[in-house]
Amino acid sequence: MDQRLNDRSFEIVGFPCNQFMGQCPGTPEDIRKVCNKFEVEFKVAEMVCVNGPERHPLYKLLIGDGRDITWNFYTKFICVFVGHEIEIHRYDGMHSPLSLEEDIVELLQTIES
Question: Which homologous superfamily is 2-112 in?
Answer without folding.
Answer: Glutaredoxin (3.40.30.10)
